[in-house]
Write a structure and sequence with these properties.
This protein is of the alpha+beta class. It is built from 8 helices and 13 strands. Helix 1 packs antiparallel against helix 2. It binds aspartic acid (ASP).
Length: about 280
Amino acid sequence: MTAIVVHGGAGLVAAERHARLRDGVRAAAAAGDAILSRGGSSLDAVVAAVRVLEDDPEFNAGCGSALTRDGTVETDASVMDGATQRVGAVGAVPDLGCAIALARAVLDRGEHVLLAGSSAWDFAREVGIAPAPAGALITERARMRLADVQKGTVGAVARDRDGRFAAATSTGGIAGKRRGRVGDSPIPGAGTWADAHCAISATGDGEAILRVALAHSIAMRIASGTPIDRAVRESLSELQRVTNGSAGVIAVDRSAFSALQLSSTMPVAAISDGVHADSMGTQI
Ligand code: ASP
């Protein structure tokens, strides 16, 4: 029983962009499902899904990333393998268009969990990842968004044929952030989590997500037997109560998946055993 669920970031999205976002998350879910349906791993599937969205300028990751207050791009990403609880992550790396690929290389190397800042480029070069040409990740929409702060991130969670879970999240962060700011997305247990029971990717107010270790709190509820939808709901309500912030989550466990958010929209696409579903998100 395979499943892949993809999100394109929680926030407020103008109606005229909905169709493009829906197409994007559908294409990403299809890329992940192509791997799962030929017996591939959940780890490969979530990375493939997130790569599709990093290259899609509609989303706040890779090309199209939110800009720092200085008008630059610094990306965060992480990928976690539930079967082994190994993680690879990168934070605040300038001009990095395929942050999830570098996060995966960090995981595969196994020496560290998180590499941050421009020094991460030393490792990126070692594994054959090159910086994007100057300005290539900056879209007109991202420039305009600097004035009009808006959210969005991309993520994927999957369960493969062997029942292994994986989660991946990639983002440009929040528009207008300070250089050097690292959000929740690359932090295991905050924006991303996978273990033997479930996989979770979060989006929304990074600082709020970090303060309640959102993904881990959902995983703990699932591990103690709470049904997945209720686990997500309870942890999102806790985040709102404690921080007054907003967030959205996709999660998958052994028997089901869930996609819920506190904000008005979150494009989501899922493919579970060949059955496709998508939505602009269920607000709680
Ligand atoms: N959570 C991301 C961050 O704070 C932003 C987002 O999901 O929109 O970096």
